[in-house]
C-alpha cells in the first residue's frame, strides 16, 4: 500500500467527516433534546475511523483493478 496516498486521503476525508458529524450531532441534539450541543468525542472518533478506512479501501480497489 502507498502510505503517502493513504495519508493524503486521510487529510482530505478527516475534516469533511468531522464537520458533517459535528453538524449532524448538533442538529440531533437541538431537535431531540432542545439543547444545541455538538458531540465532539463521537465526531472525532468517526472522523478518525472513516479517515483511515476510506483511503485504505480506495487503495485496495486500485490494487485489484
Outline the fold blueprint.
Layout: H1 3-33, H2 40-64
- Using only CA atoms, what is the Rg? 15 Å
Q: By helix and strand content, what is the structural category?
A: mainly alpha
Count of extended strands: 0
How many helices does DSSP assign?
A: 2
The largest sheet, given as strand count, sense and whether it forms a barrel, is:
none
Question: For this entry, what is the oligomeric state of its chains?
Answer: single chain
Shape: elongated
Run of helices and strands: HH
Q: Residue-averaged pLDDT, rounded?
A: 94
Structure report:
This protein has 65 residues and is an all-alpha fold. The protein contains 2 helices and no strands. It has helices spanning 3-33, 40-64. The chain starts with a helix and ends with a helix. The mean pLDDT is 94.
Task: Give a brief description.
Helix content is 86%, strand content 0%. It is mostly helical.
